[in-house]
């Protein structure tokens, strides 16, 4: 039990907390409960809550229901979402999404990032496991996990924060930008580079540095790889997208709309062969093994996201 909620099971965990599937007792409604691991995680969870409160008008982020402190642990409760993009890819026999599904996902991921940046924040840990699936095709991707996220706007001047170096590594080694490896202050361009590395992995099934966990090796591969090599096996548009992102300066606003136009054109061309997302072929039983909610909603099926109390 957690307040007026019955804890069903653990559905996720990370360095700062655990996520549980919970039922609002006396109702059919289910939610996700995130609880801090310990006192040292409190600042991270507080940061997540503060940021989520400022993102509630957008459908690209989870709906925050309530938050507080219970049993001396900080928590928040949000809408229940499905599996991550990374977990869904791992469930596929080929470990790769179809062309249409990949283009659909990376387009929606970029829309999330664009809105986050427009709200004045950078995420600093963009990767497939931080995007969760929502049932249906209306706003089907949500960006989560804002423990490392910060504002890139100086509140005293309302201008972009000045560049700094030697701030320490932030992010995940596989997807972090060269700037992150060099311990430089991150900006919007670095979220975009992490998004692009995610695109490469989702489209090709791998990254050139996937087989090593040595930071220096990963850094050298990222720093020295040329665009055609990184984008091998991908549509030529991705080489152009990578060049545009790579050439961004610290304070530059990324060309979101230009990139989205390229992706939408690719997506429209892919629709000629299939408009079915890969998980829509899965049975309800298979979905239930990897997702806390059914992703393939039937017309007469209604998800229970009711009013939550603590």
UniProtKB/TrEMBL annotation:
GO molecular function: ATP binding; protein serine/threonine kinase activity
Entry's family note: Belongs to the protein kinase superfamily.
Keywords in alphabetical order: ATP-binding, Kinase, Nucleotide-binding, Serine/threonine-protein kinase, Transferase
BP GO annotations: signal transduction
EC number of the protein: 2.7.11.1
Gene Ontology CC entries for this record: cytoplasm; nucleus
Residues that hold ATP according to the record: 34
PROSITE patterns: PROTEIN_KINASE_ATP (PS00107), PROTEIN_KINASE_DOM (PS50011), PROTEIN_KINASE_ST (PS00108)
Top enzyme class: transferase
Keyword match Kinase: yes
Name of the protein in question: non-specific serine/threonine protein kinase
Lineage, broadest ranks: Eukaryota, Metamonada, Parabasalia, Trichomonadida, Trichomonadidae
InterPro entries: CK1_Ser-Thr_kinase, Kinase-like_dom_sf, Prot_kinase_dom, Protein_kinase_ATP_BS, Ser/Thr_kinase_AS
Keyword Kinase: yes
Domain Protein kinase, first and last residues per copy: 5-267
